[in-house]
Design a protein that fits this description.
Blueprint lengths: L2 H5 L11 E5 H8 L7 E4 L6 E11 L2 E12 L3 E3 L2 H7 L5 E2 L8 E6 L4 E11 L7 H7 L27 E15 L2 E25 L7 E2 L7 E2 L11 E28 L5 E22 L1 H4 L10 E3 L15 E3 L1 H5 L9 E2 L1 H4 L3 E17 L4 E22 L7 E4 L3 E17 L4 E12 L3 H4 L3 E4 L4 E4 L7 E13 L4 E25 L2 E29 L10 E15 L20 E11 L2 E10 L2 E5 L7 E3 L2 E12 L4 E9 L6 E5 L5 E5 L4 E9 L1
Parallel strand pairs: 1-4, 5-8, 6-8, 24-27, 26-31
Antiparallel strand pairs: 1-5, 2-3, 3-4, 3-7, 7-8, 9-10, 10-13, 11-12, 13-14, 14-17, 14-18, 15-16, 18-19, 19-20, 19-21, 21-22, 22-25, 23-24, 25-26, 26-27, 27-28, 28-29, 29-30, 30-33, 31-32, 32-35, 33-34, 34-37, 35-36
Amino acid sequence: MTRRQIMNNKIIIETSARHIHLRQADLETLFGEGYELTKKKDLSQPGQFACVEKVKVVGPRGEKAMSVLGPVRDYTQIELALTDARSLGLEAPVRGSGDLAGSGACKLVGPKGEVELTEGVIAAKRHIHFSPEDAEAMGIKDRQIVKVEVETKGGSSDNRNARLELQQTMDYSLEGEHLFGKLQMDWGASYARASEDRPEERYFNLKQKDISLDVVNAGTRFPYVTNLINTREGEWEVDALTNSNQKIHEDDAKFHLNFELPLASGLYGNKLKFGAKYVRKSKTKDIEAYDYKDAYGETNTDYLNHLAYQVRDGYMPGAQYKGTDFVKKEYLGDMNFASMEGERLWEESSGNYDATESVTSAYVRFDQNLGKRHQLVLGLRMEATNLKYSGWNWLKPADGDESLEPTGERKNNYVNFLPSVLYKFDVNDDLKLRASFTETLARPKYSALVPNVALDLDDEEIVIGNPDLTPTISYNFDLSADYYFKSIGLVSAGLFYKRIDDFIVDQRTRGGYPGYEDVNFKITQAVNGGDADLFGVELAYQRDFGFIAPALKCVGFYGNYTYTYTNVKNFNFEGRENETGLSLPGSPEHTANLSLYFEKKGFNLRLSYNYASAFIDEMGEHAELDRYYDAVNYMDLNAGYTFGKKVKCTVYAEATNLLNQPLRYYQGTEERTMQAEYYGVKANAGIKVSF
């Protein structure tokens, strides 16, 4: 077989980041004696199928429900994404399937019992499934290392009218596990680098003064302008013709060392865990932009020969919104800026920065069994944060040239001690109770800490960095109960309270800037807005309808609902210090997710609904100027049918955003629309064939 023959065989690339394979003994412990897996749908790998059954994977830091794949195997294996492993506090070495010696440990919880695994948790090594026939035809042997080429469609080299982002990532990791008598040790080191280049990003702006606009329905949620703007008539002039190049790169280095020492066994067994971790992140943003309007000529009207109407039929907001002609992207893309003399846009570079953040942490944890049904977990974590930032300020003196001035290097260091307590009580095999207290922190984002002033003169906006931001500290109290039905399904309820100190929110004000005192800029700065109390209730229900009648086992329902009440205290916005009744920014009062599904004999149908109420996104000088993210209602429908044995065919169709939910912001009250973006219903249909 020639290389060309091999390359012409296409392989379906799939992801399977999280699932569980069970041996029969563990399956019966989790679901009951003599239990058999229920097929949900066939997988592309012949003989393998996804199951209705789910099992909860429990780690030191949390738990996650994961799907079971059939048929049963000779061993139990949990395959996680590395991000899942980190969030659960589990070790998941990168291994091939079945290579479980020295792999990670965890606990599995099912409706009828629990299984403690000393090994079996892995992150699946990249691999390809071949049928014996395909492997023989392509000259591939089992365990052979091969090169996979992924076919990507992109623009041609002469397509200068499309701005393509070049994104690159690089990741190295090294891990090890050791056993010194009863003392277990694991360690790991990794380095990652990511970059993004945005070359030749161009904008062509036209303006005309003194155009009279007629606005109607100004008191409704969606006001609009009735005028038809004609770019071929009137006194138009070139306002801006810009070309920019932006580069962003980020480095991420990590190292961790963990120990586990069993101290006692039996009903009152216990163990000690301790370790340390070091994380260092650095990020650089560099943008350089030039304006060529003077070189093009403010009165140049050549663009009139290159206009096009670019509003498509069926414009979703409605026919009352008038469109106009725009300069063609082909005209803009074909411009030769190398032959023009541009003016440096210093304000665009004022957002450049260098940032470094390092966190050194250590923890100790003690697990104590208090008989058969009780468990207590105590933990303490120390985190030392070191920040170093530098940026640029844009200067525009009244009688001089504009320029950038370095802000100098700003540092900020702080140490936090974060305790945690978890109590678990298994009332019986079906009812589980949990109570916990944790202290957590959330650090400010990079861009908010940069000590700079980023000015956008065209939009009359200024963003000011705040290197004095402190992290948000949260004290969390949680109480939950899970009840597992005799048939497959569960109902859970939880209460939670959080005391939040120094929450971070974007503050918007109005004002001038040196050199532009007559411009009323919209000024945005992230600040520690105050403290808040948060109370909430969580409810969840999941079950198929087989308990009503065996014929309804193929129909199921899943739903959850969260109610959250928040109250802001110690609000420190100037002029609003005594304001009461404020809600915590970024926290919707109501959220709900519902799903109704039908799955039988290769056919599956699922209807999903998601809701979140409106919440404050940014806060202004007055409550009337607060920006809200409007409530959302999303509904999606998915259907598919899979048939065939050796050659599997799947006919599928899906429709998302059935309610045509817009992205919408409003100011003060919901009638004052600030921004509304429609995306419409997206529909896909097709056929997938697996050999």
